[in-house]
Each structure stands twice: as structure tokens, then as C-alpha cells.
Design a protein that fits this description.
It is a single chain. With 120 residues, the protein is an alpha+beta fold. It folds into 2 domains: 32 residues, no CATH class; 85 residues. It has 3 helices and 5 strands. The relative contact order is 0.13.
């Protein structure tokens, strides 16, 4: 990284090169977010099929934001894995977060809380 910065600031157009280099880094950070999970962007139906085939995950919750984006939580039946997906109104989806030990905390009919076996 230091070698790259050194190359950017040498020469007569160093300010322009430095600005372009910083802009490229910022664009990358804004475009891809944090972590490797944020780099997956594809049509919603393809991402849903991938999550189901690879992890056995299906949608367990969803909500619509004011900007029209759909947020969904996918989880495996045993709660071993989960994924949060956001989808644009145009149908492009992006994984925002993923992990393990999903629990459904909504009360069951007898008043107890359902907790996935993976957490116990």
C-alpha cells in the first residue's frame, strides 16, 4: 500500500493522481461494504436458490423499507446458519450479514420461547 501511495504522489500531476487513488479506494469501500459477505450481488431468485441449495436456508422474516428495499432473513431449519439479504426494487440482492445459531424468539402458543437446537 505504501508503494502504491508513493507512486501516486510522484511526478508533476501528483495531486491529480493522489485524488484519483483515494477516490478509487473510497469507491471500492462504498461499493462493496464491509467484509466478504457484502460482495455478493446477484438477481434475487439466483441468490435465494444459492442459499437454499448450499445451506438449506429459506426465508423466515422480511420487511420493506421506505426506500422500497426488501430486507429478508434466511435461516436453515435447525438454525445452524442464517443470512440477511437486501433486495432493490429492481430485483438485485446483496448479502449484508451471515452467521450461525439463529433463534426464533417469538412466543409459541404455550407462552414459551422457541430456540433452535443449534443454540442449545
Amino acid at each position: 500500500m505504501l508503494k502504491l501511495v508513493g507512486k501516486l504522489i510522484r511526478g508533476p500531476t501528483r495531486k491529480l493522481r493522489l485524488s484519483a487513488g483515494i477516490g478509487a479506494v473510497l469507491l471500492t469501500l462504498v461499493t462493496f461494504g464491509e467484509g466478504p459477505a457484502a460482495q455478493v450481488i446477484m438477481p434475487h431468485d439466483q441468490l435465494e436458490a444459492l442459499l437454499n441449495q448450499r445451506y438449506g436456508e429459506t426465508p423466515v422474516a422480511q420487511g420493506l423499507a421506505q426506500n422500497g428495499w426488501l430486507t429478508e432473513v434466511y435461516a436453515s431449519p435447525d438454525g445452524a446458519t442464517w443470512t440477511i439479504v437486501v433486495t432493490t426494487p429492481q430485483g438485485l440482492s446483496q448479502i449484508r450479514s451471515a452467521g450461525s445459531h439463529w433463534s426464533d424468539l417469538r412466543p409459541m402458543s404455550d407462552g414459551r420461547t422457541k430456540v433452535a437446537e443449534a443454540v442449545r
